[in-house]
Structures are given as structure tokens and as C-alpha cells.
Design a protein that fits this description.
By secondary structure, the chain is of the alpha+beta class. It has 12 helices and 8 strands. The two termini are 48 Å apart.
Length: 369
């Protein structure tokens, strides 16, 4: 899917479409700088607790650091250093994976801010304001070669609209007031005539805002495999933590007391810190690879499914559909028999070659016998 053009300023005849930035290198200096700062910001326990094993490693890092400053020792200092390096590396890997999505989302945000809306005043005049300031109920006038500033309904006029940036459909569509096709999406382009649009989405809830959230990975849902792996890692963390803690009483009984640094280091060596630290980064990286190919995956499961595909065939709109809707029941109105409904449905669908239309014909023929 391509990101919509979001500039209402006519550049010659029509504003150009822009694509989500996909050429940014993974190790772009700007992304690395942002990731380095984010790696320290993610040390917040409220963030780290999402991954139990890394949360416990962070606690161990704090304990060994305090132990080092209380009683300076080279071994304890090296253990503390490696523990902090482990936690920061996990945060950095996740931040780098997020960095690409944030850079792409910034491109969309910048374009959205450049959109100018001609809002109608109560006296019938118009004023130009940024599209981000539009509220539900505002009315905007959109003329030919201008970008529709927000999601809404056409309440006046009729126009041809290019929705290819949103739906992938190359053919322009007609949008008019009072008909079935009156809804318009922010970011699409009016090709001819003029319409008045009443905004129906609040700031932050438009289609483009949802697209930005998807690009950033903020709304990515975990797959069953990820949930199962999270549960496994949490269980292993608890088991290993209990195991390491119970070693100290045995060591005391055997008169071989171990230092806190040794116990913490043992836990980190046994725990699956690598999987726990990179799990989030793996999921975000999968979303990023989809975005590089201008595809927005609505869930983590879709990303996993895409990993098993080598060839993907789509229709001209770029959507994946499966026509399996079948007629199941005839509901007649008062005074109308079911046989009459079946005959009417048969006549209206006999020329429909879609799977749904054929199912209506078959169902109606069966009921009209």
C-alpha cells in the first residue's frame, strides 16, 4: 500500500503522491542516534517488565552495581558492566527496529501537517487551516486537484475522486451527496468538480492516523506463537530464579558461600536472555520488512504468514479476498410469502456470476420448489 499524498498545494496541476520511506538504511546515523537515546529510556521498569527475563536481568544489574560501589572489586565490576551491556543491547536492538517505522511515520506526519483545509464559516466564507485542526462536524470545501483533508461524508456536490493511494484501485470513483457512495477518506484527491465534506473523525482517529500507528508498530498484536513464547520465557525465568536463589542456602550449609554477583551471573548465563531481549525486535523487524514493500500488515500473524510465502498473486486493488459468503436464509416481510421472496431473489441474482450471486440462485431455486 502506498501512503497518500498529503499536500494541498497545487504543484503545476496535481500534487504528487508520496510513498512511505523504504530506502532508509537500517544503520542510518539518525536512526542509530535515536535508538541510542531510546535504549536508555527503555530502562524504565514499567517498560522492562513486558519481558520478565530482561526485567530480572536489570534488577540484577542494579544489585551488582550497588555491590560494586559498596565494596569495589574488579570481578563484580565486570559482571555489572556485562549485565548493563546485555540490557542496553536488547533495548538498542528493539529501538533500531522501531527507528525505521518511526522515520516512515514521521514522513507521513509531515505530509499530513502540510495539508490545508478550506473550512466553511457560519457566514458562508472559507478559511484555510491545517487539517490537524479539524474537528468532528467541521465542513470543508474541496475543489479539483486538492487533497481531502480528513475522513468525512459528502454533504453537497459530486466529484470524481482518486482513491488509489488508499484502496489500490487505479480507476477513479464517484462520490456524491445523498447517494450510497458519500463517504470519503482523508488523503485522497479530488480530480474534478467541487464537493463539501463534513468531517466525521476526530484528530488522531482518521484512517491516516491508524496507518501511522501501524507503520510505527504501535498497534501490532502478538501472534499465538509470540504469546506462547512469552509464557515459556516467563515460566523459565521463574524456575531459574528459584533455582539460583535456593543455591545459596546449600552453599551456606556446605560452607562455600557465593557472592551476589556470582549468583546473578549464573542466572543470566542460564536464562534465555537472547530470545527475551530480541523477541520484540524480531516482531517489529517483520513489520518493517513488510512496510519496505509498501504492505501494511494488520497483525503479527499476517507477518508470520508472509514469511512462508514466496509468491503472492493479488487482484488489481491489491487486496486479498475469498468469496465464501453463502445465502443461508430468506426473511419475508409481513404479507409476503417465502416462495415469493425466493422468486424475487432468483430473478435479481440470475445474472450475478459472483460466488455470492450463484449461492443466492441455488438457495432460491431450492426454496421455490
Amino acid at each position: 500500500m502506498t501512503a497518500p499524498a498529503l499536500s494541498a498545494r497545487p504543484e503545476e496541476d496535481r500534487p504528487p503522491k508520496v510513498r512511505i520511506r523504504s530506502a532508509a538504511a537500517l544503520f542510518e546515523p539518525a536512526i542509530l542516534r535515536r535508538a541510542a537515546v531510546a535504549a536508555f529510556a527503555k530502562l524504565d521498569p514499567r517498560v522492562m517488565i513486558r519481558i520478565p527475563v530482561m526485567f530480572v536481568v536489570e534488577i540484577g544489574s542494579v544489585i551488582t552495581t550497588v555491590d560494586f560501589f559498596a565494596r569495589p572489586d574488579l570481578f563484580v565490576g565486570l559482571v555489572a558492566l556485562w549485565l548493563w551491556a546485555t540490557v542496553l543491547f536488547a533495548n538498542f536492538a528493539e529501538a533500531v527496529a522501531e527507528g525505521r517505522g518511526k522515520a516512515q511515520a514521521d514522513t507521513l506526519r509531515k505530509a499530513r501537517k502540510d495539508t490545508v483545509a478550506c473550512r466553511l464559516r457560519t457566514n458562508g466564507t472559507t478559511e484555510e487551516i491545517p487539517s490537524t485542526q479539524l474537528k468532528v462536524g467541521d465542513r470543508c470545501v474541496v475543489s479539483a486537484d486538492q487533497v481531502i483533508p480528513g475522513d468525512g461524508d459528502v454533504i453537497e456536490g459530486i466529484a470524481v475522486v482518486d482513491e488509489s493511494a488508499i484502496t489500490g484501485e487505479s480507476a477513479p470513483v464517484m462520490r456524491e451527496s445523498g447517494g450510497d457512495r458519500f463517504a470519503v477518506t482523508g488523503g485522497t484527491i479530488v480530480l474534478s468538480d467541487q464537493i463539501t465534506v463534513q468531517i466525521t473523525s476526530s484528530p488522531g482517529e482518521t484512517f491516516l492516523d491508524r496507518m501511522i500507528a501501524l507503520v510505527e508498530g504501535a498497534s501490532r498484536q502478538k501472534t499465538p506463537n509470540e504469546i506462547a513464547l512469552d509464557i515459556l520465557i516467563a515460566g523459565m525465568t521463574l524456575i531459574l530464579l528459584v533455582t539460583v536463589v535456593t543455591l545459596q542456602p546449600m552453599a551456606v550449609y556446605d560452607k562455600a558461600i557465593q557472592s551476589t554477583a556470582v549468583l546473578v551471573a549464573l542466572f543470566v548465563c542460564l536464562a534465555p536472555t537472547t530470545i527475551g531481549g530480541l523477541l520484540s525486535a524480531i516482531g517489529i523487524a517483520g513489520m518493517d520488512r513488510m512496510v519496505q514493500r509498501n504492505v501494511l500488515a494488520m497483525s503479527g500473524r499476517a507477518v508470520e504468514a508472509a514469511g512462508d510465502c514466496s509468491t503472492l498473486l493479488l487482484d488489481k486493488t491489491g487486496t486479498i479476498t475469498y468469496g465464501n459468503r453463502m445465502a443461508a436464509e430468506l426473511i419475508p416481510l409481513r404479507g409476503v410469502t417465502e416462495r415469493e421472496v425466493a422468486e424475487a431473489a432468483l430473478l435479481s441474482s440470475v445474472a450475478d456470476e459472483t460466488p455470492e450471486g450463484r449461492s443466492i440462485v441455488d438457495f432460491a431455486q431450492e426454496r421455490s420448489r
